[in-house]
Backbone:
């Protein structure tokens, strides 16, 4: 029987943080879109005493441009909105493509970016995309707001840099740059969690790579990312040899599990192959742009 | 001349009779039924795969809020049920034999209270060695799962002992001689995985006891009569004390044919005196009902250089899980199907079914045929490749013809196999297939496979009663699980009596009022029940004409049915009598109400002892044969090994399609289920425990995995004794799908896979191996 | 311990008053408290789509939505089908797209929301749009055809 006694609906982030701080992590939980939390409650995997619904907090909603031209994606932004966001173009399209591959249209209409990344399922679609895009996560707590790079936000299996009593308020992106962002997911059926996924974000100018971000999902406790691989691809101008080497490095660094979706060996095996394909596609676009 | 009302209805795609209620949300499935003062049931499942139950402590559960009763195995008598071997109690008693097996059940005011209380039941176990594979079950000194197997009642001459539940053999010709006479033989070992039914509606039941202690039971099922038999056997109730009904059913595929929670729910209702409903969660539906058997198959086929099949030897090993359920039938049927729809004069098929400490495996669309067909139909492609013969051509050369008999000796009164092959070949563009071009990094291939399936088995009945106003009501007891049998059977009555469809109604299955129907299973309702319905309608026609002959003072032979519910004197336009006048006379003045009835049981022998030898085969009579062919075009991703089906053609000889749209629905749906079986569906066990009992972890095909270009083609070679020539269609469409897809993957990549499902991982591995061989 | 609290929900263009615990899902409230059993519980995990209803014209999983989160919003179940959903009902009947019927309400409401957004979808757009609604009886072909047919008849 559910222990749930209270469903709070605060109107501000500060009030939500205050309600959250009253609990010890298990007892009080934040309710975003519900796609994961309510499913877990239904399965009797979690049994919070209080829920803090974020639905009434206007500040958490929507995508807006920042003064520097960057984008701020509110934590309660639905996957559907992110998938349709035209400003997520060029190198930032990786995020839009990842959003479009989450689950299915109805769940994309419910699930939120904040809820998804706070849960930090390494087989989910946003984590590698945010890491590839080098996004930042805005966090609110009792002591105010702070920002954490996505590359530091995902810490371990289902674990993030959120301290007790903190919540995700937004995802922040640098000003969109010309380039290419792509997200390729290997999964059993459409909408399934990833066996492996490759998120690639390349910013380029005048035919030269300015920035490359490459991350692999589903193959370890958190998105797999190596500065060395990014640097190789940038300096190697997305060339075949660089792609092969980057893929090998990532595969060697991967720490995949065997689960009901696939074996660890298969995951290791497809990482370089998927990386090479993603880089080859980016290379083709880069060359076509020249 | 016909009026619009009397346009032929057989062969038309008339909409489902109940379609409006399903479209508007008014259709009631068992979870939609609420009774006054209804309680909710919940189950505590076993945490162990194999253990002796030492004791129970139910005190905390009984004291929990809202709880009305808590029952354990001690509250159930020593009564056992089982379709072939009576080896199963209503809930675990003395021992548990698989993880999740119900050990205690609770009835409480709310579902949440019942579930919470069930967790409070304490059970002390003494763990026993868990037998998790057939090899472990057969190992010397293995723990015995059913110590009392020898004493169980069996409905057939079972060859069993130890952990062997059943051994079956079927042979025709002299297989050793056949191999000696062959120029070439190909041998392979094949493995298939457990597949879950995933009927969208989980299993559930609602029972209510009347003042006299008689029980009414509504449940999701494929046979009210099997529900009645299983509940009464497992609870020791006289069958006269239980009435079984069926609301709308959200599909079955075999899962709802034998018992699930019905005995438990009846027991809870009897114990509390209150209505009790229990609908399984999706997880429970995965964990405690049943699934498709994993098979290990060895096939060896001998052929002549010209491609003529000469000999085949098949051995199968089935994991039956913890209880026999329908497994002996699946074993026997898979052997009967293992020769395929071909002439192979020397064939011997042997199989062993073992108990293990896993969820019971049982009936699932295809009933063992998809597993053996995967093996045999992929092997035929290997043979064709070795001989340099086109895969379709080798099948055509060996296909059973008009005068051939099925393995075992049954005659084939209708056989559309050659036409199925022709249609699938033509429609798929088979002979132009080399032209198919894939994008860089991808490979395409087209694959082909054939199959046959029976429809029939056991007893069935029909009552067609004319109401006072001349309309009729049809009552068979056949459960429409969504495949459309209510509509099909109504079409048969309407056609026979020349009535518009809206003047025929269908009674809901009810063990109190319906004639016996073994069940909606074995592709049998259209053929067996349809025959009974047609015969009952003809009896109504006979009675109607007898009345009319007296009323018009003429000979019965001079009368004919007229469209719209009337009888007329042939050739005399004015001389007609509407059914209402005839029915009124019968009801109020002479002869008595007009009721046509028919019952029959399929009684043609499966095996002709002059042609074949069988031991341990549990169905002495079986059914009539449908035929099919499937072609599938796949694209393989060279990077990941993943397979996508781009287009497919599924063809079946169904004798006569009574309702074309429903036949297409069966063929398309069976293809989709076969696609899941071929490519990714698999129940995964982590030791004794099911690792993926959710729809997040167990994936079935979505609208994006099934190709839009899924083409169902109907071939009609009428079965002489089928209603309007019809025979079965429910299962035939699934059998050859995995083989056709595997053959397409081999055509695309050169990689031959002998284990299902054809995951990206396996295909990528095979691609690499194939490249190494050719490189 | 959860206690049930009063809740007013607007369902199918009418106000309904009921009691619901804080953790009760919209699916439970619709089915058990209000008798709108057209929304089905197929998995209770949001994976099957049989519970899909419209909230403020957008499809949601009723099993993943808390009832108390829906106060003040416009809920439509299959029992209140209107507009595109009615055209879809007719098209599903004509196309033979209904078999066991358990997925049908969720399928129709999902398709109705899709047609509001994309009035003339391609077959592949329909397949993508319905990919979160499982059907185990059909091969989806007749369902996709029914949606395409409804789109044609519903076009201006």
Residues:
């Amino acid at each position: 029987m559910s222990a749930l006694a209270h469903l709070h609906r605060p109107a501000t982030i500060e009030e939500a943080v205050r309600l959250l701080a009253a609990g010890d992590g298990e007892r009080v939980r934040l309710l975003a879109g519900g796609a994961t939390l309510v499913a877990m409650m239904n399965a009797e995997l979690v049994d919070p005493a209080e829920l803090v619904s974020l639905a009434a907090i206007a500040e958490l909603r929507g995508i807006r441009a920042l003064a520097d031209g960057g984008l701020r994606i509110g934590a309660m932004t639905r996957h559907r909105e992110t998938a349709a966001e035209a400003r997520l173009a060029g190198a930032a399209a990786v995020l839009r493509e990842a959003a479009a591959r989450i689950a299915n249209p109805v769940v994309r209409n419910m699930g939120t970016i904040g809820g998804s990344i706070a849960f930090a399922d390494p087989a989910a679609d946003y984590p590698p995309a945010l890491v590839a895009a080098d996004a930042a996560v805005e966090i609110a707590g009792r002591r105010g707001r702070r920002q954490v790079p996505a590359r530091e936000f995902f810490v371990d299996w289902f674990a993030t840099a959120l301290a007790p009593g903190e919540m995700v308020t937004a995802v922040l992106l640098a000003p969109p740059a010309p380039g290419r962002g792509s997200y390729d997911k290997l999964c059993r059926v459409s909408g399934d969690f990833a066996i492996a996924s490759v998120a690639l974000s390349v910013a380029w100018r005048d035919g030269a790579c300015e920035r490359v971000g490459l991350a692999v999902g589903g193959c370890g406790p958190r998105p797999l990312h190596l500065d060395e691989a990014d640097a190789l691809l940038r300096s190697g101008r997305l060339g075949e040899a660089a792609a092969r080497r980057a893929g090998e490095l990532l595969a060697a660094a991967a720490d995949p599990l065997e689960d009901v979706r696939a074996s660890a060996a298969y995951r290791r095996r497809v990482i370089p192959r998927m990386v090479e394909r993603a880089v080859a596609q980016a290379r083709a676009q880069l060359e076509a742009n020249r | 001349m016909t009026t619009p009302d009397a346009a032929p209805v057989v062969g038309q795609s008339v909409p489902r009779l109940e379609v409006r209620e399903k479209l508007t949300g008014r259709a009631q499935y068992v979870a939609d039924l609420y009774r006054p003062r209804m309680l909710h049931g919940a189950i505590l499942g076993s945490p162990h795969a194999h253990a002796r139950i030492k004791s129970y402590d139910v005190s905390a559960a009984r004291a929990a809020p809202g709880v009305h009763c808590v029952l354990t195995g001690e509250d159930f008598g020593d009564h056992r049920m089982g379709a072939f071997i009576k080896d199963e109690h209503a809930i675990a008693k003395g021992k548990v034999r698989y993880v999740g097996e119900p050990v205690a059940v609770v009835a409480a005011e709310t579902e949440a209270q019942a579930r919470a209380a069930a967790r409070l039941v304490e059970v002390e176990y003494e763990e026993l060695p868990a037998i998790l594979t057939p090899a472990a079950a057969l190992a010397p000194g293995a723990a015995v799962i059913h110590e009392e197997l020898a004493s169980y009642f069996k409905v057939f001459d079972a060859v069993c002992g130890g952990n062997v539940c059943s051994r079956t053999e079927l042979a025709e010709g002299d297989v050793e001689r056949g191999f000696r006479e062959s120029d070439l033989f190909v041998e392979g070992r094949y493995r298939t995985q457990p597949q879950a039914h995933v009927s969208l509606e989980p299993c559930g039941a609602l029972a209510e006891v009347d003042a006299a202690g008689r029980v009414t039971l509504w449940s999701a099922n494929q046979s009210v009569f099997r529900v009645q038999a299983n509940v009464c056997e497992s609870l020791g109730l006289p069958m006269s004390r239980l009435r079984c009904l069926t609301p709308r059913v959200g599909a079955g595929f075999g899962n709802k044919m034998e018992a699930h929670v019905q005995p438990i729910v009846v027991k809870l209702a009897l114990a509390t005196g209150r209505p009790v409903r229990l609908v399984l969660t999706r997880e429970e539906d995965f964990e405690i009902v049943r699934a498709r058997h994993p098979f290990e198959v060895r096939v060896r086929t001998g052929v002549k250089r010209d491609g003529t099949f000469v000999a085949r030897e098949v051995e199968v090993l089935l994991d039956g899980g913890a209880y026999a359920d329908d497994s002996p039938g699946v074993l026997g049927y898979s052997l009967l199907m293992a020769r395929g729809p071909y002439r192979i004069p020397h064939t011997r098929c042997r199989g062993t079914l073992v108990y293990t400490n896993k969820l019971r495996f049982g009936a699932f669309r295809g009933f063992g045929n998809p597993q053996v067909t995967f093996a045999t139909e992929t092997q035929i492609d290997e043979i064709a490749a070795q001989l340099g013969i086109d895969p379709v051509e080798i099948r055509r050369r060996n296909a059973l013809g008009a005068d051939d008999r099925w393995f075992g000796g049954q005659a084939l009164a209708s056989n559309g196999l050659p036409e199925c092959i022709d249609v699938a070949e033509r429609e798929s563009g088979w002979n132009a297939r080399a032209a198919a071009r894939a994008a860089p990094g991808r490979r395409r291939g087209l694959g082909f496979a054939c199959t046959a399936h029976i429809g029939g088995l056991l007893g069935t009945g029909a009552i067609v009663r004319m109401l006072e106003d001349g309309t009729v009501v049809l009552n068979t007891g056949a459960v429409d699980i969504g495949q459309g049998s209510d509509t099909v059977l109504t079409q048969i009555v309407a056609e026979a009596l020349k009535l518009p469809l809206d003047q025929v109604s269908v009674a809901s299955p009810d063990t109190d009022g319906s004639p016996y129907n073994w069940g909606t299973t074995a592709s049998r309702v259209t053929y067996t029940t349809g025959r009974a319905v047609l015969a009952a309608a003809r009896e109504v026609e006979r009675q109607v004409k007898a009345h009319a002959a007296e009323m018009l003072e003429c000979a019965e032979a001079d009368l004919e049915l007229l469209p719209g519910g009337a009888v007329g004197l042939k050739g005399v336009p004015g001389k007609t009598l509407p059914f209402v006048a005839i029915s009124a006379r019968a009801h109020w003045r002479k002869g008595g109400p007009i009721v046509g009835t028919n019952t029959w049981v399929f009684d043609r022998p499966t095996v002709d002892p002059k042609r074949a030898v069988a031991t341990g085969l549990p169905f002495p009579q079986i059914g009539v044969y449908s035929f099919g062919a499937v072609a599938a075009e796949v694209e393989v991703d060279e990077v990941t090994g993943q397979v996508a089906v781009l287009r497919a053609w599924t063809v079946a000889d169904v004798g006569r399609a009574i309702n074309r749209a429903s036949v297409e629905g069966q063929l398309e749906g069976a293809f989709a289920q076969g696609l899941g079986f071929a490519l990714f569906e698999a129940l995964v066990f982590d030791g004794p425990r099911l690792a993926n009992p959710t729809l997040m972890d167990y994936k079935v095909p979505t609208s994006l995995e099934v190709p839009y270009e899924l083409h169902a083609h109907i071939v009609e070679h009428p079965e002489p004794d089928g209603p309007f020539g019809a025979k079965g269609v429910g299962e035939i469409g699934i059998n050859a799908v995995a083989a056709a897809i595997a053959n397409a993957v081999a055509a695309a990549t050169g990689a031959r896979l002998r284990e299902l499902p054809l995951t990206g991982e396996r295909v990528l591995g095979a691609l690499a191996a194939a490249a190494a061989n050719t490189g | 311990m959860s206690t049930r609290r009063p809740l007013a929900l607007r369902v199918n263009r009418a106000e309904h008053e009921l009691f619901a615990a804080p953790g009760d899902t919209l699916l439970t409230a619709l089915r058990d408290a209000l008798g709108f059993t057209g929304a089905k519980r197929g998995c209770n995990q949001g994976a099957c789509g049989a519970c899909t209803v419209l909230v403020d014209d957008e499809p949601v999983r009723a099993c993943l939505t808390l009832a108390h989160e829906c106060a003040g919003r416009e809920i439509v179940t299959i029992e209140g089908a209107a507009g595109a959903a009615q055209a879809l009902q007719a098209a599903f009947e004509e196309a033979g797209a209904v078999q066991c019927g358990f997925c049908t309400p969720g399928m129709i409401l999902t398709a109705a929301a899709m047609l509001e957004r994309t009035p003339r979808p391609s077959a592949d757009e329909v397949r993508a749009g319905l990919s979160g609604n499982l059907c185990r009886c059909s091969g989806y072909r007749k369902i996709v055809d029914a949606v395409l047919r409804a789109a044609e008849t519903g076009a201006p």
In short: The first helix of chain B runs from residue 19 to 23.
